[in-house]
Write a structure and sequence with these properties.
Helix content is 27%, strand content 27%. It is of the alpha+beta class.
Length: 74
């Protein structure tokens, strides 16, 4: 079985209740990781570093799931 890639990214949200970034040019792309555990470690490190800013959030995106969600008929 091949590796499943995970993208870690974050930034300041315009509204802390919704995932709409305040400025797309300032999104922090932390990196792409070969497994969930290393992605989670990177996510945790960045989330803890920005804990004082309530609007800054970091996320883990499962890149293999994003690919599976693509509508092939479009």
């Amino acid at each position: 079985m091949g590796r499943r890639l995970h993208l870690v990214f974050g930034g300041e949200l315009a509204d802390s209740e919704r995932m709409i970034f305040r400025n797309l040019d300032e999104i922090d792309i932390v990196g792409i990781f070969p497994d969930y555990e290393s992605a989670r470690d990177a996510w945790r490190s960045n989330a803890q570093r920005t804990v004082d800013n309530a609007r800054t959030r970091y996320f883990i995106a499962d890149l293999h799931r994003l690919r599976e969600d693509v509508d092939e008929s479009a």
